[in-house]
Amino acid sequence: YAEESVMQAINTAIILTKNDSIKEMVRIAAINAWGESEWTAMEELIQRESRWNPHAVNSTSGACGLFQSINCDYNMDNTAEQIEWGINYIKSRYNLPSVALRFHNIHNWY
What we know:
By secondary structure, this protein is mainly alpha-helical. The protein is 59% helix and 0% strand. The chain is built from 5 helices and no strands. It has helices at 3-16, 22-34, 39-50, 79-93, 97-107. The two termini are 21 Å apart. The mean pLDDT is 87.
């Protein structure tokens, strides 16, 4: 998927879930990116990394947000930007959330 289609999925998620939780926004965007089969892995990754707190900051590494970006490569006040960054990061580095989760299981980071 191109970055444009990821952003379209995120915008769709925001529209569809106006007042719903961040988790539902991520679920819709992840399903649009990979399909339903990858949702459980994505859910587990975010739970481990940030416990679904978009303002989480790791006191040791300084990583921040839902996906714990080491360089804080997004605006922490913009949940859609965090979701876009996280999906693009997982796609570029691991291709699938399930592969990222397997890596995380071994190394305790991804």
